[in-house]
Design goal:
Layout lengths: L1 E3 L4 H8 L55 E6 L6 E5 L2 E6 L8 E7 L2 E5 L4 E3 L4 E3 L9 E5 L18 H9 L10 E5 L5 E4 L5 E4 L10 E4 L27 E9 L21 H4 L4 H4 L7 H7 L29 H9 L2 E10 L1 H10 L9 H22 L8 E3 L3 H9 L3 E9 L7 E2 L20 E2 L3 H14 L1 E5 L18 H9 L8 H7 L25 E3 L28 H6 L4 H4 L28 E3 L5 H12 L3 E2 L6 H12 L7
Parallel strand pairs: 14-15, 15-17, 16-17, 17-20, 20-23
Antiparallel strand pairs: 1-14, 2-5, 2-13, 3-4, 5-6, 6-9, 7-8, 9-10, 11-12, 18-19, 21-22
Helix pairs in contact: 10-15
C-alpha cells in the first residue's frame, strides 16, 4: 500500500514510484455477482441471456432524473392513453394494455444522458423498429430528457479527438440541475428527431416538438435480456476515507496506456470502452489483423513471432490480451474497475505514439495520408480519456458518480482518493515530444551539450524555444501533468535509455533522418527475412538518409570507481546487434574489396560521434551499451520550463547521465518541486 500524506507531496510521491503492478486481480474474493455493486453475470456461452438486474419499484413521490435509468429494465408507456410499447412483427407500437404484455428494454448508457434500448430479442431500437447490436450506429443512440428540459448540457469529449480547452473547462465546471420528472422524450442522435406515437399506436420518428405523443412514462419492468458486458467478479464495496492521521490510502500505477487504442497507425485492435459495449470494444481482431492475425506486422516484430495468433476477442480471449502483446487492448474499463475496487487509487495514463512504427503500419495498410505526427495523435487520445470518464459516469448513474476521475492538481487528487475513487493523471510518452524531432548531420562538430539545432553543418531540430513553450501550453491546457521528455529514440533534448539492441536501434535510425533505401534489405536480412517484414520496403524515401544508430559507450559496472551503482538490477543498457561492414556488398551481390585483401571477417569500425560505436553503422562491442547522447541546451530549457509549470517529469526512458542531471536540477529549484 502507498500512503499519500500531503497535497504538495502527492505528485512528488508519484515521481519516486518506478513501478506498481496494480491490476490486483487477486486482492478481492471472487463470488456470486448478486452481492456486488453490479448484478450482471458473465455467461461465456451466451452473455446476453438473463432476466436483467433487479431494481426497486419507485415510490409514488419518486421522480427520477435522466441518468437514473442506467442499466435498468424499463417499459415505455404512452401517457395519453396509458398503453405500453410492445413489439409485433418487427414493429414497435404503443398498443399493450398491461405492463406484462409490454416489451421490456434494457437501458444501456452510451454516454451521460444517452441510451441504447436493448430488446428482449437482443436487438436495438432504431426508431419504429429494431436492428442488430453488431450493426449499431447513431440510429440506435437516443438522448433522454425530462419533457420540457431546455438545459444546455455540455457534450462529452469526442473519442480520439483533441478537445478544446474551453470545452474541457465547460464540462468540468458544469453544474448539472438534475431535472426530475415523470415524462420523457427520446431524441435520436443521428437525426435529432423524437420518438412519437402515431394515431394508430405505431412508433415513428418525427420532428421535435411539444406534442404529448412524443412523451413517454418510463416504468420499471422485468424480463429484460442483459446487455453483454464483462464482469469484475468481485464481492462487496471498496474502501474510502482517510486514515487516523488524515492520510489517504491506496495503490498507485504510475505507467499505463489506457488510451493507446489508435496509436501505431491503427495497428492496435480494441478499445478501453465503446459506446456500443464490450462486443464492439473487444471484438475479434481479424478485422484489424487479418485471418489468424497474419497482418499484425508491428505486433509480430515486437515479440519476434511471425506465426500469427488466435483472433478471438471477448468473451473467450485465447491469445490476447497478453503482457508482451503490443497491438491488442489490454485495459478494458471493467478491468480497471476491478483494480480500483482492489485498492488502486492513482493511475498515471500516458498518451503515446511512435511515428516510425506508425509510418510502417501506414505503409502496410496503404494509407499514405494518415497523420503520424506524435503530438497530434497523443493529444487526440486525451479526448478518449475524457470520453471514458463520461462513459463510466453514465454507467454509474450520473455526472461525477463514476470511479474514474481525471485530476489536475494534488489537492484534487487527494479529494478523489479520500472519496474512494480513482485519481487519473494524464501524462505523455512520445519520442518527438513537443515536436522536437532531431535530424542528424554526419558533418557536425558540436557535442550534444553544445548543440544549437540550427542545421547547416550541424544537427537540426524540428522545434525552437518558442515551439517548446507553445506545445507545453497546449498540453497543460488539455490537462497533461506528467511528461516523458525522451522516449524510445534520440530527440532534440538528448538521448534515450537503451533497452533493446536491435529493433529500436533501427527505429532510431529512421526517426533521426531516415534509412537509405539500399540498406533496407540488409536490415530485413538481420531480422531473419520473415515475409511479413516486406513493408519495410515502403518506408518513406523522401527523408534525408542521414539517420543514425545510437552512438554508445560501455555502460558502467557495479563497483566501478566513481559510479554509485544502479537503483534496480546490476547493470544498464543492452547488448547490441551489430551489422557486418560488408553487408551492403553482400546484399548487392558485389565482392567486397576487403576480400581481395584476404580479410573475410573484418573488424567493424566505430563511426559514431567522437569515433564511438554506432552512428552510420550499427557496429558495437560485446559489452552492454549505454547512449552517449547527453542533455542538450534545448533539453535543459525544456526541463526548466516544465518545472516552472509544476509538471512531473518521468525519468524512466532517459539516458543514464541525463537522469542524474535532471534530478540534480530538480533538487536545485528555489522552491519545493513539484
Amino acid at each position: 500500500m502507498t500512503t499519500l500524506r500531503s497535497s504538495t507531496g502527492l505528485f512528488s510521491h508519484i515521481v519516486k514510484i518506478t513501478a506498481a503492478s496494480c491490476l490486483a486481480l487477486g486482492l478481492m474474493a471472487c463470488g456470486e455477482s448478486k452481492n456486488a455493486v453490479f448484478s450482471f453475470v458473465d455467461n461465456v456461452t451466451d452473455p446476453g441471456v438473463g432476466q436483467g438486474p433487479e431494481i426497486p419499484v419507485p415510490g409514488p413521490e419518486f421522480k427520477p432524473t435522466r441518468y437514473d435509468y442506467a442499466n435498468r429494465c424499463v417499459a415505455l408507456q404512452s401517457p395519453s392513453d396509458g398503453r405500453f410499447v410492445t413489439l409485433e412483427n418487427g414493429q414497435l407500437s404503443a398498443t399493450a394494455a398491461t405492463l406484462s404484455a409490454s416489451e421490456p428494454f434494457y437501458f444501456k448508457p452510451s454516454s451521460l444522458g444517452s441510451y441504447l434500448l436493448y430488446s428482449r430479442g437482443k436487438q436495438l431500437v432504431s426508431g419504429s423498429g429494431l436492428s442488430a447490436l453488431s450493426a449499431a450506429s447513431d440510429n440506435n443512440v437516443f438522448s433522454l430528457r425530462v419533457a420540457g428540459d431546455a438545459t444546455n448540457y455540455p457534450q462529452a469529449m469526442a473519442y480520439d479527438t483533441e478537445p478544446q480547452p474551453s470545452d474541457i473547462t465547460k464540462y468540468r465546471q458544469f453544474n448539472d440541475p438534475l431535472v426530475q420528472g415523470d415524462r420523457y422524450v427520446f431524441s435520436q442522435a443521428k437525426t435529432m428527431k423524437q420518438l412519437s406515437v402515431a394515431d394508430d399506436g405505431k412508433l415513428a420518428l418525427v420532428a421535435a416538438g411539444d406534442d404529448p405523443a412524443q412523451q413517454f412514462a418510463l416504468v420499471p419492468a422485468t424480463g429484460c435480456a442483459e446487455f453483454p458486458e464483462a464482469h469484475d467478479n468481485t464481492v462487496g464495496d471498496t474502501f474510502k476515507g482517510q486514515t487516523s492521521d488524515g492520510s489517504v490510502l491506496g495503490m498507485a500505477d504510475v505507467h499505463v496506456h489506457l488510451s493507446a487504442t489508435t496509436f501505431l497507425g491503427g495497428a492496435e485492435h480494441g478499445s478501453p470502452f465503446h459506446r456500443f459495449g464490450v462486443t464492439h470494444a473487444l471484438s475479434d481482431c481479424a478485422e484489424t489483423h487479418g485471418p489468424n492475425g497474419f497482418l499484425d506486422l508491428v505486433g509480430s516484430l515486437f515479440v519476434s513471432d511471425f506465426d500469427g495468433h488466435d483472433t478471438a476477442g471477448w468473451p473467450t480471449h485465447v491469445d490476447w490480451p497478453a503482457r508482451a502483446n503490443l497491438t491488442h487492448e489490454a485495459i478494458y474499463w471493467k478491468w480497471v474497475e476491478r483494480a480500483w475496487k482492489s485498492g488502486l487509487r492513482i493511475m498515471v495514463n500516458d498518451v503515446v505514439e511512435n511515428e516510425t512504427l506508425c509510418e510502417l503500419q501506414r505503409n502496410v495498410t496503404r494509407q499514405p495520408l494518415r497523420d503520424c505526427n506524435e503530438m497530434n495523435n497523443a493529444t487526440n487520445q486525451i479526448g478518449t480519456l475524457y470520453a471514458l470518464q463520461d462513459y463510466v459516469d453514465a454507467q454509474y448513474g450520473g455526472r461525477g458518480k463514476g470511479f474514474f476521475r481525471i485530476v489536475l492538481s494534488p489537492e484534487e487528487a487527494r479529494n478523489v482518493v479520500s472519496d474512494g475513487k480513482l485519481a487519473v493523471v494524464i501524462g505523455i510518452e512520445i519520442s518527438n515530444v513537443l515536436n522536437c524531432k532531431i535530424n542528424y548531420n554526419p558533418l557536425r562538430q558540436q557535442q550534444p551539450f553544445q548543440e544549437t539545432g540550427t542545421g547547416l553543418t550541424e544537427n537540426s531540430y524540428a522545434c525552437d524555444k518558442e515551439e517548446v513553450v507553445a506545445q507545453l501550453d497546449r498540453l497543460t491546457s488539455l490537462g497533461v501533468r506528467q511528461i516523458i521528455t525522451i522516449h524510445e529514440f534520440d530527440n532534440a533534448f538528448g538521448g534515450n535509455g537503451i533497452f533493446d539492441g536491435m529493433i529500436l536501434n533501427i527505429g532510431n535510425r529512421e526517426n533521426s533522418g531516415g534509412i537509405p533505401s539500399k540498406e533496407i534489405n540488409a536490415l530485413v536480412g538481420v531480422l531473419g527475412n520473415p515475409s511479413q517484414t516486406s513493408p519495410l520496403g515502403f518506408l518513406q524515401t523522401t527523408e534525408r538518409p542521414t539517420g543514425e544508430f545510437w552512438t554508445t559507450y560501455d555502460c558502467p559496472e557495479e563497483g566501478q570507481e566513481g559510479f554509485s551503482g544502479y537503483l534496480f538490477g546490476s547493470s544498464g543498457g543492452a547488448k547490441m546487434t551489430s551489422i557486418s561492414p560488408t553487408v551492403l556488398f553482400d546484399v548487392g551481390g558485389i565482392d567486397s574489396p576487403l576480400g581481395a585483401l584476404g580479410i573475410s571477417d573484418p573488424l567493424c569500425p566505430y563511426l559514431g560521434q567522437g569515433f564511438r560505436p554506432g552512428g552510420a553503422l550499427a557496429c558495437y562491442p560485446a559489452k552492454k551499451q549505454c547512449n552517449a547522447r547527453w542533455l542538450t541546451p534545448m533539453g535543459l530549457f525544456a526541463f526548466q520550463e516544465m518545472m516552472r509549470r509544476g509538471l512531473i517529469f518521468d525519468i524512466d526512458h532517459l539516458e543514464l547521465e541525463i537522469k542524474s542531471q535532471v534530478l540534480e536540477l530538480a533538487e536545485a529549484q528555489p522552491k519545493n518541486y513539484p
